[in-house]
Automatic annotation (TrEMBL):
Organism (species): Colwellia hornerae
Domain of life: Bacteria
Domain DUF6436: 51-167
InterPro entries in the cross-refs: DUF6436
Classification via Pfam families: DUF6436 (PF20029)
Protein's name in the database: DUF6436 domain-containing protein
Amino acid sequence: MTKLQLGVLTVWIAFTLSAFGYLIKDRLVDFDESNKLAGIEYQQLSGYLLPYAKPVNRLGQNTLLHFSTPSCECQQYSEKHIENLNKLAGANNFVIKNVVINEHNIIPSTPSVALIDESGDVVYFVPYGQGLACSQTAGYAQTMLNNYLKGYTANIVVKEAKGCYCNVLIG
């Protein structure tokens, strides 16, 4: 390989890596970039999210809330997660509700999901996954729902994750 070819190859590799970094920079964002969930635990979050479950949710029934924002390109990457969750939740008599929001004081990003238990408490509030296209994991939500169905309740509010999320404006 000549010095010219080596130089061209080096420039091409540097350009390719720079372009890749530029293109993914906007896709890997913090789930709670604005720190809306700082100091918020599941008890407080329950008070904010329970109204979205009503009037459908009656005490004594589990509810799965899917949060989305209009024109969020990241929603497409969560569709498989949503489909799997709905299948499992539906088979276990959960109320399933889709909530479209434009702005909110507590919900930091979408797509995200919450499980409200039969007593009205948040069992978990999480993004569907993390990483590029939120595909790095099989899904936080799927794992949490499976654990809940096995009798494990941890009341988890995920505040730190990086992935394809659309930040929700403060209302």
